[in-house]
């Protein structure tokens, strides 16, 4: 499945280019276009009951591999050129480079595992920061025991 591997790499490159705003490698574009051109596609009229008529690209049924590749390439082109292109982003979780579609505002991570991992890391970092600052305060309080101690006591009586 070298063709599928090449296509997947090309699509990933194109999506990264869309996310970063960098110009895509012309070879990625050529890869996708080769797949689209290789599949025997016919445009047909589809008119479902109760729905509006539409155009549909249909790949010949006797070419299952070409059809699968065409579907992947065609979906990539639809996404890149469609209204959701701006919602394409890279998962911000550390160590993850998967892509996701931020189709609704709250979606931040590619999967719940990444979200949980990031929340756990934040929680750990907050706890560590709190422990460290508490330790630093103790250290500071011990150093300024004379003045700081008195002012704290004064505040205590004023407010109480
Ligand atoms: Zn992720």
TrEMBL record:
Record region (Disordered)? 130-160
Q: Supply the Pfam families for this chain.
A: ABATE, zf-CGNR
Domain spans labelled Zinc finger CGNR? 88-127
Instruction: Indicate the transmembrane segments per the record.
Output: none
Q: Which PANTHER family match?
A: BLL6575 PROTEIN
Q: What is this protein called?
A: Zinc finger CGNR domain-containing protein
């Amino acid at each position: 499945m070298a063709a599928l591997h090449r296509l997947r790499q090309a699509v990933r490159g194109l999506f990264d280019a869309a996310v970063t705003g960098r110009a895509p490698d012309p070879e990625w574009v050529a890869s996708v276009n080769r797949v689209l051109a290789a599949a025997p596609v016919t445009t047909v009229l589809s008119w479902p009951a109760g729905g509006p008529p539409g155009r549909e690209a249909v790949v010949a049924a006797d070419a299952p591999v070409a059809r699968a590749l065409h579907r992947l390439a065609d979906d990539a082109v639809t996404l890149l050129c469609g209204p959701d292109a701006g919602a394409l982003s890279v998962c911000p979780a550390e160590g993850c480079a998967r892509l996701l579609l931020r189709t609704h505002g709250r979606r931040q991570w590619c999967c719940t595992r990444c979200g949980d991992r990031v929340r756990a890391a934040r929680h750990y970092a907050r706890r560590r920061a709190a422990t460290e600052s508490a330790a630093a305060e103790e250290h500071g309080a011990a150093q300024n025991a004379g003045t700081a101690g008195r002012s704290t006591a004064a505040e205590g009586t004023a407010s109480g």
